[in-house]
Amino acid sequence: MATEHDNAACATGKIRLYVEADLVAEAAAGLSPDQSHYLVNVMRLEHGAPIRLFNGRHGEWQAELTRAHKRSSIATVRTQTRPQDEVPDLQLWFAPVKRVRLDFLAQKATELGVAAICPVMTRRTNVSRVKDGRLRANVIEAAEQCGRLTVPDVYDATTLEKILVSSDRQVMFCDEGEGVSPARDALASATKGPWAVLIGPEGGFDAEERAMLRAHPSVVAVNLGPRIMRADTAAIAALTLWQAALGDW
Amino acid sequence: MATEHDNAACATGKIRLYVEADLVAEAAAGLSPDQSHYLVNVMRLEHGAPIRLFNGRHGEWQAELTRAHKRSSIATVRTQTRPQDEVPDLQLWFAPVKRVRLDFLAQKATELGVAAICPVMTRRTNVSRVKDGRLRANVIEAAEQCGRLTVPDVYDATTLEKILVSSDRQVMFCDEGEGVSPARDALASATKGPWAVLIGPEGGFDAEERAMLRAHPSVVAVNLGPRIMRADTAAIAALTLWQAALGDW
User: Fold this and answer.
1) In terms of domains, do A221 and A238 share one?
2) Is residue B16 within 8 Å of B6, Cβ to Cβ?
3) What letters, b where the CB count within 10 A reaches 16 and e where it falls short, cover B103-130?
4) Potential cystine with A27: which of A77, A95, B34, B80 (Cβ 3.0-4.6 Å)?
5) Res B10 pLDDT > 80
6) Segments of chain A scoring below 50 in pLDDT
7) Residues A121 and A229 in one domain
C-alpha cells in the first residue's frame, strides 16, 4: 500500500491496490484488513470513492468502494483501464543485506521491472534468514506505486551453487576483478531471453565462488566502473543497464 | 565516516578518511573530533594503527595513528598509495526529497561518480530547505567508503529557471511524457563534455517547466521505460546510463 505517496495518490484519485480476486466487470473484490484500514482510516475514503485494482492476471480496473469498513471493505469492479501486460523475463538474484537495505532493494527492483527476486546465500553473506513476508509486502507496495500490472515473484532463499545448477538462464555477474568487460559492451553483444542479474554480498564473492562463476557457461561477467559500489547500488545499476540493452526501456 | 562497513573496514585495515590537510610524506594530519571519536571509541584503534587519508588534491596516502585521542587524534602521513584522479564532469541536479531519501540520493550519486550535486527547487518541490551540512556529511562518508579520491561539491540550492540560464552544460532530462527517445538511444548520439542529470520532484515537473525544458537547446529529454520510478530510482538509473555511455565505466 502507498505510504509516502499518500497525498499524491489522494489528490489524483489514483490509489492502486493489488488484490487476489478475479477482476471482471461488476465483481465484488474483498479488501484485506490492512487495505481496508489504509483506505478508510488513513486515506479517509468513503462509500463510492474510486480506486484502481490489479491482480497480475486481468489488467487494471477502475473500481468503486461499495463498502467502506475499517477492517473489511469491498470494492466493486467497474471498467478495465489497462489490459494485462508482462515485464521482461529478468530476475534479481541477490545476497541478502540488512533489513532496511533489503526493503529498499526489493522496492527498487520492482520499479525497475524485474519478474522475480531470489535471495541467494553466499559464503560471505552475513544475513542468515530472510523474511519472505516482508519481501513480499515490499514488492507489492512498490508494484502498486509504480503502475505495474504484475507483482514480482519472491522465491525462497537458496544457495549460489544450487541456483547455478538448477537454472538455465543467462546470468549477468557484476565482477570487481581485473580484465572484465564494461557492462555496456558485454550487454551489447548479449542475446535476449531469460536473464538474471547476480549481486554479491557487501565484501563480494570469495575466490572460489568467483572462479565457479567465471567458469560457468551461462555467466557473463561485467564491470560497473572504477568505484566500489554498495550491493544495492550495484543491483540498481545492473538492472538499469540490462533494461536499456535487452529489456523494455 | 564509515558506519555500516565498520567491521569490514576494521578487518581489512582499510579505514579511509577525508581530511582537509595537505598530504605529503611525514606530515601530521589533525583529525576532527568526530573522526577521532570514530577511530578511538568506535573502531578502538590504538597508537600505530594504519589508516588511509585523502583530501581531494594529493591522492591517497597510507598513514599511521600517532596520537590516539578520543577528541583530537593525529595521523602521520607515510607513503602515497594512489595518485590523485578525477571523476567525469557530471553533476546531479535534483529536486530535494524528504530527508532519508535525500541522504540516500547523495550517497548513491557519490558512488556513481558525480562531480557535484545541486538541489534545484521546482514548482512541485515540497521541501523548502535543504541542509547543506547534512548533504556534505553524506557525500564525504560515501566518498570514504567507495574509494573515491574526490568528494563531490555540494552547491547551494537554486531554482530551475536560474540554473538553466546560468549553466552551459548539457542536461539529461528524464521526461515521462510521450514521444521521448529511450535514454540509451539519446545518449548514443550525445557528445562528451560537461553534463548534468536533472531529476524532478515526486509528481514531476509541471507543464510550464516541461515546456521550458523541452525548448532549451542544451536539454536532452530521455525516457526511462514504461514504469513510474521514484525520483531517487530515476536518478540512479540516469546516472548509470550516463556513466556507461559517456563516463568512465
Assistant:
1) yes
2) no
3) bbbbbbbbbbbbbbbbbbbbeebeeeeb
4) A77
5) no
6) 1-12
7) yes
Pair B151, B231 in one domain:
yes
Residue A206 per-residue DSSP state? -
Per-residue pLDDT at B183 exceeds 50: yes
**Whether B172 contacts chain A with CB within 8 A:** no
8 Å CB contact of B236 and A241 = no
pLDDT tens, residue by residue, A136-153: 999 999 999 999 999 999
Q: Cα B228–B234–B236 angle (5° rounding)? A: 150
The CA distance from A92 to B141, in Å, is 28
pTM of the shown model:
0.91
Cite the beta strand spans of chain B per DSSP E: 16-18, 28-30, 50-54, 60-67, 74-82, 90-94, 116-121, 153-154, 158-159, 170-174, 195-199, 219-222
* Mutation for B interface: A5, A103, A227, most B CBs within 10 A: A227
**Whether B112 contacts chain A with CB within 8 A:** yes
Which residue does chain B place closest to A248, by CA atoms? B225
- Residues of A with Cβ-Cβ distance to B244 under 8 angstroms: 182-184, 241
Alpha-carbon distance A191 to nearest alpha carbon in chain B (angstroms): 17
Residue A1 located in a structural domain: no
The partner residue sitting opposite B111, judged by closest CB among A111, A223, A233, is: A233
